[in-house]
Design goal:
Layout lengths: L1 E4 L3 H18 L4 E4 L6 H14 L7 E4 L1 E3 L10 H8 L11 E2 L7 H14 L4 E4 L21 E4 L2 H10 L11 E4 L2 H5 L3 E6 L5 H9 L17 E5 L10
Helix pairs in contact: 1-2
The protein binds 2-amino-2-deoxy-6-O-phosphono-alpha-D-glucopyranose.
2-amino-2-deoxy-6-O-phosphono-alpha-D-glucopyranose (GLP) binds next to helix 5.
Length: 243
């Protein structure tokens, strides 16, 4: 595991942006794994700015998003498809036919099977992750087996509260109770993984990831065994680390 410790959110976003931009420049037909949540927003702004100013092209890039809320259509303003369009895709020259976000409003088992087949045929070159305050990655909540593939999952109360604070205008009842998420095995199959964590509320999860043995009670902890894993943390997220 490579740890990059920076001062704040802006610096963390800058570092992650550089890694993703360089990936696309070096391999213009890269397959990128993308994430939602508040953490990647600034990095996505930087990618959009770089595309506009320097012309980095996404014409041949394919993307796979981690997860989607169950029951929300892609047109719903709180759906992750909508999030990706508004924060990234509409600013790039990416072909929307090359964009993949699991669909939360379909026959869920058929959708999980479809997504797993696509992932088996398209190895992700570079996967972006955020982390939940309870250590979840994607929507793989504590207790999810490490060998899980794309599946339907019930969200933890703490996750729904976290996500209501930042999205859904603070209304907990509006946050879906279930989601569809890439499994931990799918995430671990990416050639390279980058996780950004910022803020004190991520410090306990980051301490577990960096200092403890992998355990399913902290899903992100398995990443310490990935052969090419980079962790980007700011001072808040690093504040509970011993060294
Ligand atoms: C959601 C997403 C995760 C994300 C997490 C953290 O639950 N499914 O992929 O990492 O939120 O969100 P934030 O970046 O807003 O702290």
């Amino acid at each position: 595991m490579k740890v990059i410790k920076v001062k704040n959110y802006e610096e963390a976003s800058q570092k992650a942006f550089e890694i993703f931009r360089d990936q696309v420049k070096e391999k213009p037909d890269s397959i990128l794994g993308l994430a939602t949540g508040s953490t990647p927003i600034r990095m996505y702004e930087l990618l959009a700015e770089d595309h506009k100013v320097n012309g980095t092209s996404y014409k041949n890039v394919h993307t796979f998003n981690l997860d989607e809320y169950y029951g929300l259509a892609p047109t719903h303003p709180q759906s992750y498809y909508y999030f990706m369009t508004e924060h990234l895709f509409k600013f790039l020259d990416i072909d929307l036919n090359n964009v993949n976000v699991p669909k939360g409003n379909q026959d869920i088992q058929a959708e999980c099977d479809r997504y797993n087949t696509m992932l088996a045929e398209n190895q992700i070159d570079l996967q972006l992750l955020g982390i939940g305050s309870n250590g979840h990655i994607g929507f793989n909540e504590p207790g999810t087996p490490f060998d899980s593939v794309t599946h339907y999952i019930e969200l933890d109360e703490s996750t729904r509260k976290d996500n209501a604070r930042l999205f859904f205008d603070g209304v907990l009842e509006d946050v879906p109770t279930h989601a569809v998420t890439m499994g931990i095995k799918n995430i671990m199959e990416a050639k390279r993984v980058v996780l950004i964590a910022c803020g004190d509320n991520k410090a306990t999860a980051i301490k577990g990831l960096v200092e403890d043995e992998p355990t399913t009670s902290l899903p992100a902890s398995i990443l310490s065994t990935h052969p090419d894993f980079t962790l980007i943390i700011d001072e808040g997220a690093a504040s509970k680390l011993d060294k």
